[in-house]
Amino acid sequence: MKKNNVSTKKVCIIGLGYVGLPLAVQSALKGFEVFGLDMDESKIKKIQAGKSPIDEEFLHENLPKVNINATTNEKVIQKADIILVCVPTPIDKMFFPDLGPVRGAVAAIIRNFKKGQLVIIESTINPGVCEEVVEPMFAEAGYKVGKDYEMAHCPERINPGDPKWNVTNIPRVVGSFTQKGLEEAKKFYETIIENSIYPMKSIREAEAVKVVENSFRDINIAFVNELAKSFDKMGIDVKDVIAGASTKPFAFMPHWPSCGVGGHCIPVDPYYLIERAKLSGFDHEFLKIARKINNSMPLYTVELLHEELNNIKKPLNGTRVGILGLSYKANVDDLRETPALKVIEEIKKHKAKVEIFDPYFPKMSTVKSIEELLKKSEAVVLVTDHKVFKEIDPKIFKKHKIKVLIDGKNCLSKKDFEKQGVVYKGIGR
What we know:
This protein is α/β, with parallel strands linked by helices. Helix content is 40%, strand content 13%. The protein folds into 2 domains: 199 residues, Rossmann fold (3-Layer(aba) Sandwich), CATH 3.40.50; 196 residues, Rossmann fold (3-Layer(aba) Sandwich), CATH 3.40.50.720. It is built from 16 helices and 13 strands. The strands form 2 sheets. The chain has an 8-stranded mixed β-sheet, with helices on both faces. The chain has a 5-stranded parallel β-sheet with strand order 10-9-11-12-13, with helices on both faces. It is globular and about 75 Å long.
């Protein structure tokens, strides 16, 4: 797609969340006429007013500059030449993949089909979904890929809150059923992204890229989480060990332990690969073990709290515990798969009293400030390493007589807090 004919192409983004909305804005910035489809009316109203429903710097800066035709009316699909499916792909309580949102988006496209459209699935899916789920839906409706439409998969890559890497500059990969579909999709992304677009030999390979990326991270995080548990028994500070190992200039990549893995990618994507591999007769034992370890970390964090309180002859039952942070990662308003909710749930099982503060979620916080939380608490668990929490003066803990601090992100100074008479316990330190 050449720059000079961008204005003739119309793009429809289905799903205006953390992936879809930045794509919509970036496409508009590059000259496309953009339609945004989402069923959340409150979100649509904000976008129509030029206000981002997501706390993201790129969106706050650029959404007011462009015109996104945001709507809940699926008939806008009929106007599009290029359709991007950016809906969630969650897992259920039993960790089984839920492709319902993807099926729903595809069904909407079929109801509003226009011959010659390029359909790009950005939602994270396991290898085989485009061939086994999406394409058959079009075929059943009488539409043939490569003849009536083209289909491609470009797995989303987004890192909320990252000041360097965003939708404008992260390299992407793309795969398709046909060479024409591959070329069209590649040209589209080359138009909107200021980095390389890597073509895959098949759409199935493109689907596999995303789950491999995040399974890699999940496995390495599980490794250091298990090290944290082990080194805690041996009196070794795992943070110091990883820092030491990081001095090796090759064959080592540092990952860090914590109170749990959150976000829509790392704790979800491995299950998509695990379940799909079962259908092909393969059992991903390694991935399942990694998931088990990482899922155990919120409970382990509460066990540390319980243990440290017991060491000072204080039961968790009835203790007032302050929770610092709800977001799954620092400096974003994102609750997807956050370990914070699991930590809170486990603490409440022990009949402890819980106070919560997260500046990004004032409505879910039980207090209005760090000071108020500390005033009401006897012990504190830091779950999210927001900048404002990392800047806390340890003396304020002493002032409010906080007895125990569990640092679930290992982001505070153990030495400085212990100087103030606070029992400090990190994850593996």
